[in-house]
Structure formats: C-alpha cells, structure tokens
Write a structure and sequence with these properties.
The complex is a heterodimer of chains A (412) and B (408). Chain A has 412 residues and is of the alpha+beta class. Chain A has helices spanning 49-57, 66-75, 100-112, 118-136, 139-152, 172-182, 198-209, 255-266, 272-280, 311-323, 331-348, 352-366, 372-380, 384-393, and strands at 7-11, 17-22, 28-35, 79-84, 89-96, 189-194, 229-233, 238-247, 286-293, 298-307, 400-405. Chain A has two domains: 7-209, Metalloenzyme, LuxS/M16 peptidase-like (Cytochrome Bc1 Complex, Chain A, domain 1), CATH 3.30.830; 229-405, Cytochrome Bc1 Complex, Chain A, domain 1 (2-Layer Sandwich). Chain A has 14 helices and eleven strands. In chain A, helix 1 crosses helix 6, helix 8 packs across helix 14 and helix 9 packs antiparallel against helix 10. Chain B contains 15 helices and eleven strands.
C-alpha cells in the first residue's frame, strides 16, 4: 500500500504534543488543536459551561475584538471553527500553506488570551441556548444525544452542547474557572497536515505555545448509565429509535474485528441492516449502526427513523439482524468491508484538514498515530471465523433503548 | 491538469479534467431532469426514479448493484434537485472500469414492479422524515410560494398522495423521455487518462438512445407574499425569505455570490454581526441559488419566536442600507479572499472538482479552470455590485414562516 504517511511527533517541554504530517501534493495546510476542556469537565448542574466558554473564545482575544479577529482570519483565507467534544474543545482550520504561520498566531490568541468580557457573556449564552433549542426541533439528532447519556452515563455521556435546564445556572465566573482549570498544555494535542515545513512549524508552535504553564486535570462528574428503557413523548410523523449495546475499546486487541463486525452490520448499501430493513422491507429511509469506541470503553450505537405504525416492526427486524450477525459471515462480505476501508484511507490522503484531525484524534485515543500500512495489515488478518468467534463471545447484551415519538416501543 | 471534451453521435457530452497528482477519481452522470420537468400527475417521479436506479439493471439485482459498488470500495451516491439528477462515485483509479460499468448501468434501470412497490414505502418514509424537520419543510413551502405558477415551485419529493398514486408505467414513460443521451453529461475528474475514459464511454454509452430533453425555460414572475404557517409542537420559528436574483447564464452570477457572502455568510457578514453575534437567533444566512432561466437569493432565519419580528426588521435594514450606501472596500476584499480560498481548498479533491466541472457544463457548456475562477473573482468591483443591486433590488419578496407564530 503506497501511503507516504510519515508523521512526526514532538513534545514541547510543557507537555504539549505536536504531530505533523507532510503532504507534498496539496497546496493547503490545516490544523486541529485539541485542548482538554470538553463537556466532561462541566461541573454538576452546569452542563453547557464548555459550550459557553467555546463561544466566548472568539468574542475578543489578544489585541483584537471579535470583529477584528474575524477580519484577520478572512484576510488570510482561513476557514476555521471551534467545537465542543466530550474530552476536548476542538479548533480546526485550513488555509493556503503560506498563511499557516499567521493563522497559528491568531489561534494562539484565541486559545490562550480570550477577553471573556462581561458585555459578551449574555450574547454567548443566548447563542448556546439557540443551538440547544434547534436540537429540540431535530428529533433524529436529539435521540442520539439522549441515547449516549443513557448508555454511557457520566462523564462520557454528558451532552457536548449543554442542556437547557442547566444553562441559567452558568455564570461568567464559571466560564473563567473552566478556562483556568482546563486550558493547559499537557493532554493538549496539535495536529498539522499539509504542504508544510516541519522544523519551521515546530519553531512557530514553540514560540506561540512554549511558555504555556502546566496545570492539573480537574475532576469529572461520574454517574451510572441508565435508564436502559426510556421514551420521550413527541407528536411527530416518525418515531425515532436509538439502540445501544456495549462493545470494546479502541485499544482492545480485537478492535479491528469489532470494527469489521459493525461494518458487516452497517458499512455500505450491501450491509445487513440496510438490506434487511430498507431494501427488502422498505421500513425506513435512514437506518445505521456505528462503533463508538473510546480509550477505555465502547458502544455500538444504532439509529432508525420510521413512521409510527411501522416502528415496532422496524425495531424487531433490527434486533433480529443484530442477533443473527455472527451467522454465515462470508468472505465476500468481509472483502467488501476491507475494500471500503482501503479506499477511504487512501482518499483521506487528499484532504489536509481530514488528516490533521485524524492524527490528533488518534493520538488522543491511542497515544500514537496509526499508520495506514498498519491498519491495512490488521484488516488483512481478519477472517470470517474470527468475526464470528468475536461476536459469539461478545453478544449484543445490556441493550439501551430510547424512542422519541407518539408511542413507546418494546424489546420482545 | 488537462481538460478534454467530446460529444458522442447520440448526443452524450463527455468532459474530463485529468490530474495525475491525486489518489482518486471522481465520476458523475448529470441528467438534466428534476422536479421542474414533472407534470402534476407524476410529482416526485424524478427523485423516486433516482432511488429506483439502484434496484438493478440488465441481469443485475438490487443486491448485486449494492454489493458490487461495495466490492470496489466506492464512495457513491445520487441526488435530485429541481433541475438535475446526478449519480456519482469516488474511487481508486484501478476501480474506474468496474465503477463506470455500474454507474452507466444504473441510469437505465430495470424498474421492476415489485421493487417499485417496496421502494415506494422508502420514499414515503423519506417524506415522513422531512416532515419532522421544519428547516427543510419551510424551504419547500417557500419555494412553492415564491415560484407559484412556475415549474421551479414544484416539490422534489412529491406528496404522500402523488407518490402513492404513481405507477411503474408512468415512471417508465418519464424515464424514456428524459434519460436520453443528449440530456446527460458525463464528468470525470482526477487520476485517470482521457484514453481510458473514451474507451469506457465507447463500451457502455455509445448505444444509449439519442435525443435531448424538452424543458421549457422561462423566467419566473414573482409577487410579494407573506405567510406564517402555525406549527405549535416545535420550539423555534423557521423563516425563509426569497428575493429574485440573476439566472444561471447571467454574467452577474459571480457578483451575486460575492454580495450574498457579504450579506449573510456564516461568519463575518452583516447578518452575522447584527443577528448571530449578539445572540438574537440560531441561524441567519443569505445565499444565492442559480437556476435555468431564474435565480433567487435565499435567506433562512431560525430562532425563538419572540425575536422573529425584530430579526426580520434587522434583515430588512441591512438590505436597505446596502441598496442605499453599497458595500465597503474592506467587505469586498474579505469576501473575495474567502471565496478564493474556498475554491482552492475544495479543488484539492477530485469530488470537489467534479461538482464544479459538471455544474458549469450543465448550465453554460463552459469549462472553468480553478485559475479562471480565481481571476473572475478578483476582477469583481464595487461598481459591479452596485449595478447588481440596481438591477435586482433587495426587496423581501417571499417571506414564509413555519413554527409557533401565526403572523408577524
């Protein structure tokens, strides 16, 4: 496999990790900065602190107010964004390669020297409130957010966007405190990919982030998962079905086998779920399952949206397909998973922003970057028998079911 | 990068931009047919037909089609709009022949009665899904109101009634009329050769039926409309505003793009600073859409119902100020930078190039290299934008609301 993926990793003295992938065929350069200040660090009763903090970061930083920041970014042709994830606040950006150093200077202001001015607090809260209200109007999005909360418990199931009931409890001081305690160089990961000079880029990052003082990891709120059966009533045309069951972590030796199993379940249009639920029975438009594996745990998360009177049948068929998954796995099915993975991996090499965020995320989940060659070799080693054995020893148990719609469903 | 084009004797247009420096190939068949080309009896047939394409052709069943696309690891899909139905895939270069065979095969599908019945259920589910998404519903309803009496106002999905009543025979007739080689463009971008493309075209497309489409193109006449549809089980008020704008062949379309960006891009635009940054709404954007013979500025506003009236006033004020005072030099420079950077970044991937390649040819039979696009963007002046606003006054024409409000 010709992948040309040499990735350099470099640790600054204060603990910040820099990962650089040189991509000579592109004209662009992209960054992905992960700072460990995500929603898992929202304090009890204050879910949404990370969201408000994230919104405040671009409302004035360094020597610029919010408008000057936006103008500076636009004049560099920088396409950038900030978002809250469970563990991190993620900063991503892409621009033409020559504009990377100047873009990183602006980023350093936003990540390290935000103003958090009193006058910008109410607009930031209002902005977060609006995005929470918009989730209420998107039941297919809401069902998966609420499913995660129920199957993973806290901290990992805490909604990344926040919650409407906690939002009024969050003050500007909470935001400042979140920033003070969470924004620190250890556990911060900087992924850079594109047509860049590694030595110069490390020099720039050292200049901008080298004097950042280390801190200690704040505590996270822990609470058990559940309830495992729940229904949210809504007068809607469709019933939203969210179904989850435990799987393994990304660092488990069987991870790639678990991945292949979910891929046979729901990888492409020829996958079992799509074939049985949509193609053969026409039960719904959208149905899928994904493997959500973290450092130490994992879940298979499954979604379907279907009109109310066909919802129970849809759930029944999905469960049947999941329970039968270990049976009759063919070489052809497995080869299709491998072909899809191989294409996706190679095509990722065409996108600097795709690679920047992939290498940063890899480092977070595995403490290293997995090369494409390694993934290729691991996939080649999987056989139908191995998948079958894996599924027999890891059956779909301890199901969490959440539905949104006029009437609840039951697991028969 | 090299550009090539050829028209086959049956009328199929083939265009390609080859590039040995990328890892993949993007390939797409663009059929010039969509909801605007439908009669009321077959409303939604273009989109339903797009689904049926994947249900098998020749000796191939639906399972065969799905499995063989997955065998080559293709990232593939299809979409239907008011004017275009497209079928496309991104693959590694060695799988181009197999993918070509599949994509060219599915657009002449078997259309079996049994598959038609099953897929009808999926279409009805898709309509049900969008029914629960007010942001989508308001778009369809605003389009219908704005283009009332014009084919562009016709729904892409159709209605549960029109889909239920549709027969496979009606779909076959529609297919025979619209899927003629002269109504189709094949576009290819990425790591392949012109010779390889021509061989594949010769093998799979030479026998396609000749002839073109029969779309009637005439400009839409629009009259001011204001309507608020009550939907009390949702939280936000969703509003769509539509304003007439240059059509797809107009040289003014670049200026229209730049103007829309200055007014309502998702960051650093007038609407961003006046509405989003102060936290008055969840979404407030302004964009430009080009169609055959017509065009529109579309603005979407979503937020709490209490603030809707004030936000509509803010939008009106912005548009009036631009009509009266124009834009600033800084705004123009920033917008040009933004558009240029987006053009360059999206062109790094063959799929990004494919969309631009196909779109330009479909509407204008024109090839535009990335460099040409960048030069055009840089050449736009404040005078161009002033002239545009004089020709296309920014008056709120259609205002359509969906949500808890009964009126504003």
């Amino acid at each position: 496999m010709n992948t040309s993926d040499t990735i350099e990793s470099h640790k600054l003295d204060n603990g910040l990790t820099v990962l650089i992938q040189h991509m000579p065929a592109v004209q662009s350069a992209a960054y992905c900065l992960l700072i460990p200040a995500g929603s898992i660090y929202d304090r009890p009763g204050k879910n949404g602190t990370a969201s408000v903090t994230c919104d405040m970061l671009t409302r004035g930083a360094g020597d610029r107010d919010s408008r000057q920041l936006a103008i500076a970014q636009d004049s560099l042709g920088l396409q950038s964004g900030e978002s809250v994830q469970a563990k991190h606040i993620k900063f991503s950006g892409a621009t033409l390669k020559d504009n990377l150093p100047a873009s990183l200077e602006i980023l350093a202001d936003i990540a390290r020297r935000p103003h958090f001015s009193e006058s910008q607090f109410a607009p930031a809260v209002s902005s977060v409130k609006h995005s929470l209200l918009s989730i209420e109007d998107e039941p297919r999005q809401k069902v998966m957010i609420e499913l995660k909360r129920r199957c993973e418990g806290l901290p990992w199931g805490k909604p990344t966007d926040g919650s409407l009931e906690d939002l009024p409890n969050i003050s500007l001081d909470d935001v400042k405190q979140h920033f003070e305690s969470c924004f620190r160089p250890e556990e911060t990961i900087f992924g850079i990919a594109g047509n860049v000079d590694s030595a110069k880029t490390i020099e720039t990052i050292t200049k901008l982030f080298g004097d950042w003082k280390p801190g200690t990891e704040p505590e996270v709120e822990i609470s058990p998962a559940g309830p495992d059966r729940d229904h949210i009533k809504l007068e809607s045309t469709q019933t939203q079905i969210g179904l989850a069951y435990p799987s393994i972590s990304i660092n488990d030796p069987d991870y790639y086998t678990a991945w292949a199993a979910v891929s046979i379940l729901s990888g492409g249009s020829s996958s079992r779920l799509f074939t049985e639920v949509r193609e053969k029975r026409g039960l719904c438009y959208a149905v899928y399952a994904t493997l959500g594996s973290l450092r130490d745990s994992g879940h298979v998360l499954c979604y379907a949206g279907t009109t109310v009177d066909r919802a129970q049948e849809t759930l029944d068929v999905i469960l049947q397909v999941i329970n039968d998954l270990s049976q009759n796995i063919t070489d052809e099915e497995l080869n299709r998973c491998k072909a899809g993975a191989k294409s996706a991996l190679i095509m990722q090499q065409e996108s600097s922003s795709g690679r920047a965020s992939r290498i940063a995320r890899d480092w977070f989940l595995r403490d290293r970057v997995v090369t494409l060659d390694e993934i290729h070799d691991r996939l080649e080693a999987i056989t139908p028998q191995k998948i079958s054995d894996y599924l027999n020893s890891h059956p779909a148990e301890h199901l969490t079911l959440l539905t949104i719609g006029p009437t609840p469903l039951e697991i028969k | 990068m090299e550009f090539h084009s050829q028209v086959l004797p049956n009328g199929l247009t083939v265009i390609a931009e080859t590039n040995p420096h990328v890892h993949s190939v993007g390939i797409g068949f663009f059929v010039k047919t969509g909801s605007r080309d439908e009669t009321p009896e077959v409303a939604g047939v273009s989109h339903f037909l797009e689904h049926m394409a994947f249900k098998g052709f020749g000796n191939m069943t639906a399972d065969d089609v799905n499995q063989q696309f997955d065998d080559v690891g293709a990232s593939y899909n299809a979409s239907t709009s008011e004017e275009v139905t497209q079928f496309y895939a991104a693959i590694l270069p060695e799988y181009l022949p197999k993918t070509f065979e599949l994509l060219s095969g599915i657009i002449y599908p078997s259309l079996k009665e049994e598959d038609f019945k099953t897929e009808k259920q999926v279409i009805l589910e898709e309509i049900g899904m969008y029914d629960d998404l007010p942001g989508f519903t308001v778009y369809e309803q605003a389009m219908a109101a704005h283009f009332r009496g014009h084919p562009l106002g016709q729904s892409i999905l159709g209605t549960p009634e029109s889909i239920t009543a549709l027969t496979a025979a009606q779909m076959r007739d529609y297919h025979a009329d619209q899927y003629r080689a002269g109504n189709i463009i094949l576009a290819v971008a990425g790591n392949t050769s012109w010779e390889e493309i021509l061989e594949l075209v010769d093998q799979y497309c030479a026998k396609w039926p000749a002839g073109g489409g029969k779309r009637s193109v005439f400009p839409a006449k629009t009259a001011p409309t204001r309507h608020f549809q009550l939907l009390s089980n949702i939280q936000q008020e969703h509003v769509m505003i539509m304003i007439p704008a240059p059509e797809a062949h107009s040289p003014d379309r670049y200026a229209a793009d730049i103007l829309a960006m200055i007014i309502g891009d998702d960051s650093n635009s007038r609407m961003f600073w006046d509405i989003i940054d102060p936290g008055h709404a969840d979404s407030a954007d302004f964009g430009y859409a080009e169609y055959d013979g017509s065009g529109a500025f579309l603005s979407y506003l979503a937020g709490s119902p209490e603030e809707t009236a004030a936000n509509l006033e803010r939008i009106e004020t912005i548009l009036k100020q631009i009509a009266a005072d124009g834009i600033t030099d800084e705004e123009l420079e920033q917008a040009k930078n933004k558009v240029s950077s987006r053009v360059v970044l999206s062109s790094e991937r063959p799929m990004g190039r494919l969309a631009s390649l196909g779109g330009n040819w479909l509407y204008r039979e024109e090839y535009r290299a990335v460099k040409t696009d960048l030069e055009t963007i840089q050449s736009i002046t404040k005078d161009d934008l002033d002239a545009l606003v004089k020709k296309w006054p920014l008056d709120l024409t259609t205002v359509y609301g969906l949500g808890p409000l009964e009126g504003v």
